[in-house]
Amino acid sequence: MEPTEGQILYGGIDLRTLGLARYRSLVAAVMQDDTLFAGSLADNISLFDPDTTPLKVEAVARQAQIHEEIVAMPMG
């Protein structure tokens, strides 16, 4: 990520030194209006990707810190 001038710092670290993968792992977006599509939570997490696996869905749910809430649901 190259700023037009100056630096972009995250925790005092210049983002140019992080690399794209590390930078992306530090950034998230939370939308104000949630939308769930018709289907299961796993479908919504995987965005209906037919090649996803239950392990990938669980990993994403853990990253989003919603896994515990999901397993606590009656059909979790």
UniProtKB/TrEMBL annotation:
One Gene Ontology term of the molecular function aspect: ATPase-coupled lipid transmembrane transporter activity
> What InterPro entries has UniProt attached to this entry?
P-loop_NTPase, Type_1_exporter
Q: Which SUPFAM superfamilies match?
A: P-loop containing nucleoside triphosphate hydrolases (SSF52540)
Quote the Gene3D superfamilies the UniProt record gives: P-loop containing nucleotide triphosphate hydrolases
Keywords of this protein's UniProt record, alphabetized?
ATP-binding, Nucleotide-binding
Q: Where is the signal peptide?
A: none
Q: What is this protein called?
A: Toxin secretion ABC transporter, ATP-binding protein
Q: Which organism is it from?
A: mine drainage metagenome
